[in-house]
């Protein structure tokens, strides 16, 4: 659900790659517990914007506030420690380790060793991974790998999750599973989300609100219905 407090806000956030402005003075805010989708044509600047939020890219100018504090100059791992979780297109799991061993890695950061087994069992169960616990991660299906990665992120009890195209390359069934998972995490754990996604049906299933980026700037924001039926939005997708 949508809370009343802002969890993340950018002010005049800008990223230049030489003469190219990939992020053009963006003022973007989302509320605690909100699930926001970020859409826009190829090259609109979606991934760049997300990388600025994660700390993977340094802005040319502007400010990022998170949970009441400025985080513009914080390293990625410090942002993660404060509850920003990051998931990119390529699953960042450890392919040679088992599912259980993968979960152990983030758990070591937050739990006492005596709690590992109990917490691992809880997470395996919640993310429907119990049957695969001792499987090598590289043997999992693509959808299971995505679920494992989200499970690993959830061990850190984030307040905000950033996902770049989480269902790209997934089957219809796997996409439905991820949609349900994100909605459940959003509802039950009150985690806010910023999700970049192309699949408009997926966006319709999960989003509270949608932000459309175009040429590095916010083009429009609204509910999925408002945005999808906007003739100007259709126009930018057609490249006119
Ligand atoms: P989107 O994710 O919406 O498709 P991107 O954020 O990947 O868009 O890219 C926005 C613009 O910035 C594009 O014109 C892209 O070519 C450019 N760009 C992205 N990353 C870099 C980079 N590391 N160096 C130079 N240009 C880049
Ligand atoms: Mg992208």
From TrEMBL:
UniProt cross-references to Pfam families, sorted A to Z: ABC_tran
One GO MF term: ATP hydrolysis activity
PROSITE patterns for this protein: ABC_TRANSPORTER_1, ABC_TRANSPORTER_2
Residue ranges of domain ABC transporter in the record: 8-240
InterPro entries assigned: AAA+_ATPase, ABC_AA/LPS_Transport, ABC_transporter-like_ATP-bd, ABC_transporter-like_CS, P-loop_NTPase
Keyword annotations from UniProtKB, A to Z: ATP-binding, Nucleotide-binding, Transport
GO cellular component: plasma membrane
Gene3D superfamilies: P-loop containing nucleotide triphosphate hydrolases
Domain of life of the source: Archaea
SMART domains named among the record's database cross-references: AAA
PANTHER family: CONSERVED COMPONENT OF ABC TRANSPORTER FOR NATURAL AMINO ACIDS-RELATED
Record protein name field: ABC transporter ATP-binding protein
Source organism (scientific name): Natrarchaeobaculum aegyptiacum
